[in-house]
């Protein structure tokens, strides 16, 4: 029965230490706690070997020396843990060197057997006689224990009421219970000549271990907020540990027990040992191959897929994703985060590409504006001469009525060209408009007169709203908007087959002008500036300056439709006022 308690203690301590250490192997508090638990496990294994298998005088001295050394190492680690937890601070090297200096004498003394004069069994009863040096050793060990406990208690008072305070309280309670029980078994009772509890002293660590385990699972012992806390992971380290433990236990039950029985059921001779060694080696291959398969499936295969996806993205396949079943561990979080990152990277690169295209378009518009300004400067002087000559001809006598009308139309066209040239020169700084009540129907009719589309070139259908649609704005600029759109749409008109439809209407708070094409169209003219035509650009800016919108739609047959929306003027106090800042 004693061996079962010892085995249970060993497995509990190893599992607890691994759980804490694997949670965050780089954290000092985790390392120190895992080391403390490991030394407790070594103490239990020492007792298991001595009390359950080798109760002989020759082993008693080794047991005593090992007990002293492990007790000292265990309290060293306790002090180190008290220094680093919960702040994860560094161990004070100078203080540690001073505090641990006596170990340079005590450890060699214990190893050489100088701490006990006699240890063994007398009449079936274990007895041990210690030297004065042993008492100094024990005093030093308890000094370390109480020093570490005081440091932890000081921090407990500092962090009381917090999660760290709860963790420190659980640790202090576990230390108090474990220290009291082991002191009773190893010190107090032996002082009165009773050594019966020595074989049970390692089992007395179980209450403290249970308190540790409770603190870990309920207080999330040693857990600090991190980027992975939100995922509530089941770590890969635990999965691998479970795989190893499951394979080891299964292989022992399935292979080792039958092989031992088969090899030694007739006695432990040389032939029996030969059979056991040969078939034990053979049977070890199966669990090892199974373990490799489980590790490959749990860790290496998912990591390979993540690696291949990362290499693919590095080569330019932005948006590539990891084809991996979602798992609640670090690899699953890594794969999901990589997929999100890859998708976001693809979206950002596409956005950058579009931004680059817009920047190129802006550069082309700037270049076109510079060119347009230069051309306008060259053309303006001849136009002024033409305009002056037309005015001179209009003042002359003897012209027929038709000629005077033609001269008036020419003068209007020249004036319009001069206005366009002025806009080209500013290119983006449209002149400050005049503010007046303007009839939308009159704007459309004026634009049609200026367009002068030939009857054999295209047909024009007009559907004007019977109500008077009044907007607030600059009549010349509104006429220019409609004229620009008519001229732009007429660039690829086919003679006698293209029909232009122009309509005006009211839609809620807006006046709507719609210009559309029907019928056959010719091939579109090459667009040197990627669709950013000057007439459309100016029209859009003018419409925006009038607090309206311009929609340009081209269907799959290159037919164009333009929809202009302008706010209707409802009363004298208009809802907006045109100012130079609007442009």
Can you tag this structure with a few keywords?
two-stranded antiparallel ribbon; 9 strands; elongated; disordered C terminus; 4 domains; alpha+beta; five-stranded mixed β-sheet; 63% helix; 11% strand; 583 residues; 15 helices; Rhopdopsin 7-helix transmembrane proteins
Structure in words:
The structure is a single chain. This protein is 63% helix and 11% strand. It is of the alpha+beta class and 583 residues long. The chain has 4 domains: 2-224, Rhodopsin 7-helix transmembrane proteins (Rhopdopsin 7-helix transmembrane proteins, Up-down Bundle), CATH 1.20.1070.10; 228-317, no CATH class; 333-417; 428-582, Histidine kinase-like ATPase, C-terminal domain (Heat Shock Protein 90). Strand 1 and strand 2 form a beta hairpin. Helix 1 runs antiparallel to helix 2 and helix 10 runs parallel beside helix 11 (330-395). The model is unreliable at 224-228, 524-532 and 571-583 (pLDDT under 50).
């Amino acid at each position: 029965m004693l061996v079962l308690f010892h085995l249970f203690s060993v497995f509990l301590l190893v599992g607890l230490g691994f759980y804490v250490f694997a949670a965050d192997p780089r954290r000092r508090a985790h390392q120190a706690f895992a080391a403390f638990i490991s030394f407790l496990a070594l103490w239990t294994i020492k007792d298991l070997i001595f009390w359950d298998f080798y109760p002989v005088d020759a082993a008693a001295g080794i047991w005593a020396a090992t007990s002293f050394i492990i007790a000292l190492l265990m309290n060293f680690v306790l002090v180190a843990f008290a220094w680093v937890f919960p702040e994860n601070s560094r161990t004070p090297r100078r203080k540690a060197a001073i505090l641990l200096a006596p170990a340079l004498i005590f450890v060699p003394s214990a190893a050489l057997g100088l701490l006990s004069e006699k240890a063994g069994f007398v009449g079936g009863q274990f007895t041990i006689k210690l030297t004065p040096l042993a008492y100094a050793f024990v005093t030093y060990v308890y000094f370390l224990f109480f020093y570490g406990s005081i440091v932890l208690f000081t921090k407990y008072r500092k962090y009381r009421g917090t999660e760290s305070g709860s963790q420190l309280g659980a640790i202090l309670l576990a230390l108090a219970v474990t220290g009291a029980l082991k002191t009773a078994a190893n010190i107090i009772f032996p002082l009165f000549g009773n050594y019966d509890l020595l074989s049970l002293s390692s089992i007395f660590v179980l209450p403290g271990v249970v308190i540790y385990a409770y603190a870990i699972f309920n207080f999330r012992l040693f857990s600090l907020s991190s980027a992975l806390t939100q995922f509530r992971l089941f770590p890969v380290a635990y999965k691998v540990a479970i795989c190893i433990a499951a394979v080891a236990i299964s292989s022992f039950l399935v292979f080792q027990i039958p092989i031992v029985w088969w090899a030694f059921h007739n006695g432990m001779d040389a032939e029996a040992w030969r059979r056991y060694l040969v078939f034990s080696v053979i049977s070890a291959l199966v669990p090892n191959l199974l373990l490799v398969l489980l590790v490959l499936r749990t860790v290496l295969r998912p990591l390979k897929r993540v690696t291949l996806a990362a290499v693919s993205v590095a080569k330019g396949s932005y948006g590539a994703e990891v084809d991996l079943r979602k798992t609640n561990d670090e690899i699953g979080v890594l794969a999901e985060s990589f997929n999100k990152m890859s998708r976001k990277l693809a979206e950002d690169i596409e956005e950058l590409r579009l931004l680059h295209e817009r920047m190129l378009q802006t550069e082309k518009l700037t270049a076109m504006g510079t060119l347009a300004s230069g051309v306008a400067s060259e053309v303006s002087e001849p136009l002024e001469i033409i305009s002056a000559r037309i005015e001179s001809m209009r003042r002359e006598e003897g012209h027929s009525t038709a000629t005077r009308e033609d001269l008036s139309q020419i003068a209007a066209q020249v004036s319009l060209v001069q206005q366009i040239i002025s806009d080209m020169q500013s290119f983006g700084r449209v002149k400050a408009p005049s503010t007046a009540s303007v009839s939308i129907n009159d704007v459309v009719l004026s634009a049609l007169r200026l367009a002068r589309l030939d009857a054999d070139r295209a047909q024009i259908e007009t559907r004007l709203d019977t109500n008077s649609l009044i907007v607030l704005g600059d009549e010349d600029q509104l006429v220019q908007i409609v004229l620009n759109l008519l001229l732009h749409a007429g660039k690829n008109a086919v003679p006698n087959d293209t029909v232009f439809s122009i309509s005006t209407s009211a839609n809620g708070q807006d006046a709507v002008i719609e210009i559309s094409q029907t019928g056959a169209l010719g091939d579109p003219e090459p667009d040197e500036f990627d669709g950013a035509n000057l007439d459309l650009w100016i029209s859009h800016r003018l419409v925006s300056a009038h607090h309206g919108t311009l929609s340009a739609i081209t269907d799959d047959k290159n037919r164009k439709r333009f929809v202009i929306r302008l706010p209707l003027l409802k009363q004298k106090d208009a809802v907006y006022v045109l100012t130079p800042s609007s442009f």
